[in-house]
């Protein structure tokens, strides 16, 4: 087992619940605060909840229990939020001084504890929202084939994340979702992705040349580079060019705004899941509204300046405006925000974590380099060479197993749905813990192996294909439409890096992954680079 520097700061809480836990903190649910005003407020919330919920928590619990699905007992109004808070605090006190790749214990210690008590599928409560936790690959297969239109996104998440995604593809449902999915699909086919290869090279070369110049200038053989920022620039350039074509530079400003918005949304002290809370004008909410509007405004500026339909993804989306049952201009704005966030951050993070893992595992770094050199003959790769890079694929797969950029996904039953032997009642949310699946001892070879970086496990192509416990790009109808693009970018950028530089971990790097919608390093990634 390889150990990394311990985290310097406090461990972050998982974002899904972080915000809700902050809500408890900010409410200060203690007996001393139980003033008549607070009680009146809680009563009002309860009434609103009752109106919102399809079934009462008790009814949902009974339905699930009658089917053998157990779970921790929910408390009045707060569900299991206080349990989550208690378990998280206990776990962070116990945390070992050295950090490993074991992220589930770090981000979801309460899931780990509940799995031990209730098995791989159980029900827990986020306030009044019933959530079915699923970590059984067979059940996930059943959900996959139970029809995309049966599932939506939980209303409280859609509202909470509205400034970031609006009604873009991630949040869209029913016919809107299908329509948007078709348009995005057209822009991300294998053929279209080939055309993007040029912009990956165009974005990467100046940055990598800059690294080489700095190494030569310093005269010490190696220098420290903060790679996270540079990978941001490369992946931001690629997605921005895909979306906005020749207007791509304006995309950088929008991306910067969306990142601050994302950090504010997931770090700010807010209440999630309580109706009306997003309208309360406190500082976090106000900042989120302002940034959301500013991002919209910048995208509208690009749209308004357009004459005719350009040959980019924005052009494709604009062609759908004003058609019968077509998109509105606001839908196009929302789609741009969605694609910028979904397409840039995830790809960047997968590269960041892969570089960290290769820096820690020089043997695998050498193997990837040898393969790239053999295929490219020491020159830059062309698009057709990427598919020959098998060891590179194994390394990337293993990196996304240990550090999946998206750690979980949530659906909500739009009607009563039969999934295998289970009857899932309308209104119940289902959380699929991608990280938990990727660290499942039964799927990945026991406690000795599961947290190890071992790309060899992906050498058996049949195993990887069959194993539905591996879902870094999601599953079913909502599977990531950007997978081909992401995989091309990953390979192109990595092959250029390993063929020019070797790298190790800098003593200044402290291993402190945090979860803000995606799993990211809290303090960036600092590596020591040497020219080959
Ligand atoms: C390594 C890179 C990436 C990873 C690991 C990743 C992962 C995922 C996952 C797990 C989902 C499913 C989420 C869910 O079911 O809730 C998803 C959906 C999505 N991804 Fe990606 N993604 C990546 C790159 C990209 C890129 C490059 C784009 C766009 C150019 C993109 C656009 C989207 C969109 C629009 C959805 C929503 C699909 C829908 O709901 O129908 N992703 N992604």
UniProtKB/TrEMBL annotation:
GO-annotated cellular components? membrane
Decide whether keyword Lyase is in the record: no
| SUPFAM superfamilies, sorted | Cytochrome P450
What pathway does the UniProt record associate with this protein? Alkaloid biosynthesis; taxol biosynthesis
**Cited Pfam families:** p450
Q: Which cofactor does it need?
A: heme
TM annotation in the entry: 33-52
Positions contributing to heme binding: 480
Location(s) in or outside the cell: Membrane
- According to the UniProt entry, the coiled-coil residues are none
Which keywords appear in this protein's UniProt record, sorted alphabetically?
Answer: Heme, Iron, Membrane, Metal-binding, Monooxygenase, Oxidoreductase, Taxol biosynthesis, Transmembrane, Transmembrane helix
What family does the Swiss-Prot or TrEMBL record give for this protein?
Answer: Belongs to the cytochrome P450 family.
| Protein name stated in the entry | CYP715C54
Instruction: Give the species.
Output: Taxus chinensis
């Amino acid at each position: 087992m390889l150990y990394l520097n311990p985290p310097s700061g406090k461990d972050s809480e998982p974002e899904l619940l972080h915000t809700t836990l902050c809500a408890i903190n900010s409410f200060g649910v203690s007996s001393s605060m139980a003033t008549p005003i607070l009680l009146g407020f809680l009563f009002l919330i309860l009434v609103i909840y009752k109106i919102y919920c399809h079934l009462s928590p008790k009814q949902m619990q009974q339905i699930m229990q009658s089917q053998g699905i157990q779970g921790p007992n929910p408390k009045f109004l707060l569900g299991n939020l206080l349990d989550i808070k208690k378990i998280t605090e206990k776990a962070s006190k116990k945390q070992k001084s050295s950090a490993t790749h074991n992220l589930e214990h770090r981000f979801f210690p309460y899931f780990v504890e509940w799995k031990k008590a209730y098995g791989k599928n159980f029900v827990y409560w986020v306030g009044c929202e019933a959530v079915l936790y699923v970590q059984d690959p067979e059940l996930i297969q059943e959900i996959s084939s139970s029809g995309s239109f049966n599932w939506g996104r939980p209303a409280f998440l859609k509202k909470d994340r509205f400034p970031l995604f609006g009604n873009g593809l991630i949040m869209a449902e029913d016919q809107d979702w299908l329509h948007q999915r078709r348009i995005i699909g057209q822009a991300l086919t294998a053929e279209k992705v080939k055309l993007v290869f040029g912009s990956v090279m165009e974005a990467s070369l100046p940055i990598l040349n800059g690294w080489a110049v700095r190494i030569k200038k310093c005269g010490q053989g190696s220098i420290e580079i903060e790679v996270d920022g540079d990978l941001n620039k490369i992946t931001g350039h690629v997605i921005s060019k895909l979306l906005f074509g020749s207007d791509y530079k304006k995309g950088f400003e929008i991306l910067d705004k969306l990142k601050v918005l994302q950090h504010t949304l997931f770090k700010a002290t807010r209440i999630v899941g309580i109706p009306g809370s997003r309208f309360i004008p406190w500082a976090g909410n106000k900042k989120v509204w302002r940034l959301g509007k500013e991002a919209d405004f910048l995208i509208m500026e690009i749209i308004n300046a357009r004459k005719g339909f350009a040959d980019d993804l924005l052009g494709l989306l604009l062609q759908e405006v004003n058609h019968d049952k077509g998109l509105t201009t606001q839908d196009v704005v929302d789609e741009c925000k969605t694609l910028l966030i979904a397409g840039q951050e995830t790809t960047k993070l997968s590269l960041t974590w892969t570089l960290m893992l290769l820096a820690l595992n020089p043997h695998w770094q050498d193997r990837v380099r040898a393969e790239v050199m053999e295929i490219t003959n020491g020159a830059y790769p062309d698009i057709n060479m990427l598919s020959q890079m098998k060891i590179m694929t194994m390394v990337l797969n293993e990196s996304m197993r240990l550090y999946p950029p998206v750690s979980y996904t949530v659906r909500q039953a739009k009607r009563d749905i039969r999934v295998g032997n289970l009857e899932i009642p309308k209104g119940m949310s289902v959380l699929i813990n991608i990280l938990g699946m990727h660290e499942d001892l039964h799927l990945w070879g026991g406690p000795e192996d599961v947290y190890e970086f071992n790309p060899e496990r992906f050498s058996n192509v049949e195993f990887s294909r069959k194993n539905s416990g591996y879902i870094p790009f999601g599953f079913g109808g909502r599977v990531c439409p950007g997978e081909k693009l992401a995989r091309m970018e990953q390979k192109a950028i990595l092959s250029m890096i390993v063929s020019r530089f070797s790298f190790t971990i800098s003593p200044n790097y402290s291993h402190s992954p945090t979860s803000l919608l995606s799993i990211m390093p809290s303090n960036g990634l600092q590596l020591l680079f040497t020219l080959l």
